[in-house]
Design brief:
33 strands; 34% helix; 447 residues; alpha/beta
Length: 447
């Protein structure tokens, strides 16, 4: 670390040569600042000296060179502005907060709480392999050209608020250890988040992605929220981990692709999903599709179920347009289930009863329910007919005959007469219903 005497030399107004500037960078700016932090408090005098030297030496020399080089610098906390809010103080109070030339923070380390506020990066800026050890915020920051956060590490909370990325931005393999928030952020060109890691909640709320957006191989360990976000072209593919996601109130164009994503953990309420491309996604192994929206904490009133009906109806149109009849059938059953629940809230007893029976029959789209219904009838009525003459084989034959009357000929059915005709007719009627719904479900699956 630089001696106090040498440090004072650089703080004075004397001019320095290239060799002395190199000494200042290597022995001061790149040196560890851990000794400045004692008893959970930064040494304010040393922090003030640091930012004074940034303004006095680094910024002036960088402007002369046409290149801002902060690579491998070790930064303490942000400087203090006149309004007592911590901001990164690279400029004097009366200066415009603009980086006119390319900026390089590659390999830098920000030890304290850092705030980039009201800054304009006019050229490329690189935070490649940069470490942010404390809370970080970018507020009202404009990035005009290429911005790189590749392999950056954010060890505490991160917020990007009211900021604009007008060039390509790269967050590939960035590591967000704590909560992350992109709020009202604008991405004009390509935004790449491939294989990045979000260990806690990640919010992309009211964000605009106008260019190609890529979330390939991302690890979302916490809740991820894309509510009210606008996409132009996006790929969500092969998440390495996915806890729960929210795309509420998002209008998806047909250039958005979900590939091999577990969508049972996703909310789409009030979103437009008719045109989005779902490829090889996991919709669960249940007889019908069950989205995470059904487990929402919001009030489950009539409007809530109407919104779910509309959501599943959109899925039907989406799957039909791609000739995915199996998923279309599952989405149809979910729509009917939501309608049944709505009728119960509306106290429509007759309609609810009809839809309840319809549900037991698989809504004419579930193959298994009517099949198991036929099998159940055969077993139950075999037990009933056993008491005619206590012969299990003849009882089974009679049960088959009653299930499929006039379609097959089976001996030993002559005793299905008198009062035995009552259970036989009941079985025939129920079997006809189950068989009809079984054929309808087959037709929907293999059309």
């Amino acid at each position: 670390m630089m001696t106090e005497e040498r440090l004072q030399y650089f703080l004075d107004d004397t001019s320095i040569n290239e060799k002395e500037y190199h000494e200042l960078v290597e022995d001061y700016f790149k040196a560890d600042k851990i000794k400045w932090f004692k008893k959970n408090k930064w040494d304010e005098e040393k922090v003030a000296q640091f930012w004074q030297l940034i303004r006095k030496r680094v910024m002036l020399i960088s402007r002369a060179r046409g290149y801002y080089d902060f690579s491998q610098f070790v930064f303490p906390k942000s400087g203090n502005g006149s309004d007592f809010k911590p901001i990164l103080d690279y400029w004097e109070q009366n200066e415009s907060r603009v980086f006119e030339f390319e900026v390089n923070f590659t390999g830098a380390e920000f030890m304290g709480e850092i705030h980039f506020q009201d800054i304009h990066f006019k050229s490329n800026v690189s935070f490649l392999c940069t470490s942010f050890l404390n809370n970080l915020s970018f507020s009202n920051v404009n990035f005009s050209e290429l911005t790189v956060f590749e392999h950056a590490e954010f060890l505490r909370g991160v917020t990007f608020n009211d900021s604009n990325f007008l060039g390509n931005v790269n967050f590939q393999e960035a590591k967000f250890v704590s909560s992350t928030s992109f709020w009202n952020v604008f991405f004009e060109k390509q935004a790449w988040f491939g294989e990045s890691i979000f260990s806690e909640d990640a919010n992309f709320i009211n964000v605009t992605f106008l260019g190609d957006t890529n979330f390939f191989g991302v690890r979302f360990s916490g809740y991820v929220n894309f509510s009210s976000t606008k996409f132009s072209e996006a790929l969500f593919q092969d998440f390495k981990e996915y806890s729960e996601g929210c795309f509420v109130n998002v209008n998806f164009p047909n250039t958005v692709i979900f590939r091999r994503i577990d969508l049972t953990k996703t909310k789409f309420l009030q979103a437009d999903i008719i045109n989005v491309q779902f490829k090889e996604c996991n919709w669960g192994n249940t007889p019908r599709i069950i989205l995470q929206d059904e487990f929402s904490n919001q009030k489950k009133d009539i409007n809530y179920y109407k919104a779910l009906e509309s959501l599943y109806r959109q899925l039907i149109k989406n799957f039909d347009s791609n000739k995915d009849w199996e998923l279309s059938s599952k989405a149809y059953m979910s729509e009917m289930e939501m309608r049944k629940r709505r009728y119960r809230l509306e106290n429509e007893k007759l309609l609810f009863s009809i839809y309840w029976v319809y549900a037991q029959l698989g809504f004419a789209h579930d193959i298994k329910r009517p099949f198991y219904g036929l099998l159940g009838l055969f077993i139950i009525f075999t037990g009933v007919y056993f008491f005619i003459d206590y012969n299990i084989l003849w009882a089974m034959q009679r049960s088959i005959y009653a299930s499929l009357p006039k379609l097959i000929t089976i001996p030993n059915v002559s005793k299905l007469q008198d009062y035995w005709l009552i259970p036989a007719n009941v079985q025939s009627f129920l079997a006809l219903v189950f068989l009809t719904f079984f054929i309808l479900a087959l037709r929907k699956r293999f059309r």
